[in-house]
Every structure is written in C-alpha cells, then in structure tokens.
Amino acid sequence: MAEYLQTVCAKYAIVDKIQVNTDAKEARWLEDEQVWEVTLQHLMVGAGDLSEEDRVLKVKEQGHSAVYTYEEKIRCKILISAVGGLVQPKSWPENIPGKDDFKGEIFHSARWRFDVNLKDKNVVVVGTGCSAAQFVPKLVTEYGAKSVTQLMQSPPWVEPKVIPPLGENWWNKWSPTLNTYIPGFNKAMRYSLATVLEYDFRLFRPGSFGERERRKAEADCLAYMKSKAPEKYHEILTPNYGIGCKRRIWDPNWYASLNDPKIHLTTLPLKSLEEDTVTLGPGRNYPPENVTSSTSTDKITIPADVIVLANGFQTTQWFHPFKVHGKGGQTLQDVFEERGGPQMYMGTAMDGFPNFFTLTGPNCFTGHTSVIYTTESMVTQTLKFVKPLLNGDITKIEVKQEAQMKWTTQIQSALRKMVWADTRTKNWYLRDDGWNSNTYPYTQLDFLYRCSFPTWRHWNIAYTQKGFLKKWTKRTFVLLAWTVAFIDIYKKRTSGGGLGLNGLLNRWFKRGLLVTASTLTKLAKNIQ
Q1: Do 69 and 138 lie in a common domain?
Q2: pTM recorded for the entire structure
Q3: Flavoprotein: is it a keyword of this entry (predicted)?
Q4: Using one digit for the tens of pLDDT, what is the confidence trace for 4-31?
Q5: Is 1 strand, coil or helix?
C-alpha cells in the first residue's frame, strides 16, 4: 500500500505538495479576506500514529515537546477535509474500573503495538467486529498466544469469504498479468464487482421485498455459521436482528478459528480489571437476559496479560478534534448540536462555511459496497466547485441553508425506515438518541448521479467579472441553440421545408456570433 501511494504521488508530481507529520488543529474563515486560516501543529516522528487521547496523555506525562515541534498558521482559498470517519479509536470504557491497576498492556487494534510480544500470553479481545474477525484467528497461529478470550456484546452477521474465479491461488498468481496486459480487464472486473455489491442494497430496504430478501440472506448466513463454528457457540452466534443493521463480516476464517481450544468466545460482560486478571459477569450481554437461554451468567475471573480493544471508532463525533470555525466564529460542532446532530449537504458542505468541502462526510457511508466508490463520487462533485474557484471565475461558494436543512430532513426521514434503525442491537451508525450521521439511505448509483450533476440553485455563488461573463455566454449559446432548433422544427412542420442539418448549424453559428457579441457588449456596460 505504501509503495502504491508513493507511485501515485510521483506520477502526478504532488510529493512536494504534501506535508507529513503535520496535524490540523483548527481552521477559521476570515470574512474580510475571504480565506481560511488554518493552524497546523508539526509532530515529532511517530506521533502521527497516536490517537488524540494518546497524544494528550503523552503531553501530560512527558511534556508538549514529546509530541509537537512547532505551530504555524497558513491561509488558503479552499479548505477540504478528507480525514473520513474511522479515525479516532474508541477509548477504554469509562464504566469499567481497574485500568490503572492492570499491569499488562492495553492497546487498540487500530494502533497495533508491534513491540508487544504476545507469545505465551493470555490475551483478552474486546469486540467482535470486522477488525477482530481479521486478527483473532492469527493470535494463536501466528503470534503464539497462550489463550485468547473474545468478549462479544451481540453477534455479527457473517457471510462466506468471496472466492475469486478459479480460486485464490490462481487469482493471486495471474491477476496482475491480466490486469496489466489485457485492455479493459481491470475495469470490467471492477464494474462487475461493483454491480454485484450494489445489488446487496436490497437487504437494507424497507417493505416486504427488503424483508423477504433479508430472510433469504439470513438463512444462508446461519447455515454457513453452523457448518463452520463449534456447536456450543451456535446460540450466541445467532443474531436476533436483521442482516445489515450492523456492519456485515466476510469471514476471514473467524468461525473456523473458534474450534481452536485456545480461543474462547463469551458474552459475559466485562466488569473490572485487576493486576493480571479480568472479571467477567455476572449477567450476559447476549442473548438478552429476558430470553430463556442456557448461556452462562455466572461470574468468572480469567488470567490476562494483554488486552486488545476492537471496540470501534468515534464515528458519531465528526471532525473531532479538528475545530472548523465558520462565519461569526461558530464551529461545525456548534451547528451540529443546534440542528440535532452531525449533518452536511450531500455529505460535502454546510451553510455558513464558504469554500469548505468534505470527502466522506456525514451520511455518505454504505453498508454494502466500498467506500472508495463513495469517495470517488465526492471527488467528482467537489472538483466541480473547486475548479471555478481556482480558475478565478468565482470567489466564494456556499450551500444555501434552506437546501442543507431540506436535504438533512429528507435523509433522516429515509434512514428511519431502513434496517439500520433496528433497535434490537447497537451499531456504529447511530447515536444513543437514534440520530444516524453515517449511512446513506439510497444506492451508490443514486449518489454518483447526484454528485455528477450538482443542483446549482442550491448554492450561493459570488462570481468574478470573468466568471459572470462566462456564465451568461454559456447560457446564451444554449438558449440560442434551442431557439434555432425549435424554429427550424416549426418551419419544417408548417411549410414542409426546413434548413436541414448543414443549414441549421450554419444559421446557429451566424446567429450565435451576433447574439453573443451583442450580449457581451450589454453585460460589459452593466458591469461597468
């Protein structure tokens, strides 16, 4: 991945445009100058890999210079946030005591500690999401852990891993050659995969069709689970909510790994930590305690040398800890709080924040396909706004408040009907109050179309003189073309004649020159 990124940067000659080991602390819109002022913090080497919580802790223990080297302010006409949503890992649960008493290591899977030796260690894993499913099978086989205890709140829906045509070994060997030397092969494969994944959106839809499709998929997933996982786990691995409500997992051998006697899965709740042990129970996270079950609820204490958190990210705290101050000094977080929750028009812009755009902002994520597809759509849209700014055609562009609020109302209304609103389990899409700031309630084809053809009337645009002339020149030509076409059609119908294609183009060109010259003259006088 690093080699690929380096190749792309070199190909497009942007290496000198990138600042590494740099953190954006805050940004302020300067109305008088019509620019953004961004405060940058330059980091010590390696500090960029730390979460915000870890940086704060390190500063507290070792001083400011242990994390930051110096601070500077820069100004820019256009500000784009491309940090995404899965950035800041969730911290240790505040309601679980004993963290300071624990003598072992605690780290998040997103900030993996390669310096921690797991060989012959008792490892406790908190979480059963996509990340945990990928690394848990390797803790014993590759890292040599003595035991692994995985704590689960509720079971995920798990689908079989997608096997490439002719098998993984064949594909790994020959796909680079096919993609390199057969014209169009890579695009054909990508479009085929995108089509298959887009079809999965049916699982999230409301109504009888969506419910019927979910039941089919759930039956297939349960059959797969029972064929791979030990029978003793079948009950706690059977979800009681609709497929798609939580992020699905394409099985990276997690089910099969549960057959290893060194790996233990439990739904007993984590209660406390001691020096070298963890206390679980009494009670259980799943099945719900009001449901009759043979699953144990007894309190137990197990040995623990290392704890790995796979409890997700702070997905509902958008732009945290980056502070973006718009008109009047109000921050994005202030606006979110006033309006009920994180929201942006098309996940891209917010009124009161001119020339500010985001990639993969609120309500852009999907539960069925790659976020790369989403990101590319948003890049397409953002460039349509950025290019006229860079070309000097406009000085400022800002989404209208009415359009932004109407969009949010539409999105939240649609989301309440989707499978993600299922209250039988928790997911990282929703806040505790039910506000969904993550998922998009329509297909990605729909999103691509909206991004490709922006609704310009939803935007307040400040044109330069050059941009104003270009705008009306374009409109004049379009209007002229339609006018000439309709006149020719009318004459042809009434008189049986018509100019024909050559005559039509000739007349359009001549009239275009005259009308354009006249229009430009009038516009120039008006501007003066």
Answers
A1: no
A2: 0.86
A3: yes
A4: 999 999 999 999 999 989 999 999 999 9
A5: coil
Whether residue 279 is found in the same domain as residue 170: yes
Which carries the bigger pLDDT value, residue 354 or residue 93?
354
Give Cβ neighbours of residue 298 (< 8 Å, ≥ 6 apart). 281, 282
Predicted confidence (pLDDT) per residue in 231-260, tens digit: 999 999 999 999 999 999 999 999 999 999
> How far is Cα 350 from Cα 79, in angstroms, rounded to an integer?
13
For residue 124, tell me if it sits in a domain: yes
Cis peptide before 183 (omega within 30 of 0): no
Query: 392-403 burial by CB neighbour count: b if 16+ within 10 A, else e?
Result: ebbbebbbeeeb
**Among candidates 252, 253, 250, 256, which has minimal Cα distance to 229?**
256
Domain count, the chain: 3
Q: Is 518 inside a domain boundary?
A: yes
Burial code of 203-242, b = ≥16 C-beta within 10 A, e = fewer?
bbbeeeebeebbeebbeebbeebeebbbeebeebbbbebb
What are 66-103's pLDDT values in tens digits? 999 999 999 999 999 998 778 889 989 889 999 999 99
Pair 159, 40 in one domain: no
- What is d(CA 346, CA 459) in angstroms, rounded to the nearest whole number? 12
Q: How much is the average pLDDT of 114-123?
A: 97
Question: Do 54 and 119 reside in the same domain of the chain?
Answer: no
Parent domain of 31 = 19-76
For the chain, counts of helices (H) and of strands (E): 13, 18
DSSP 349: B
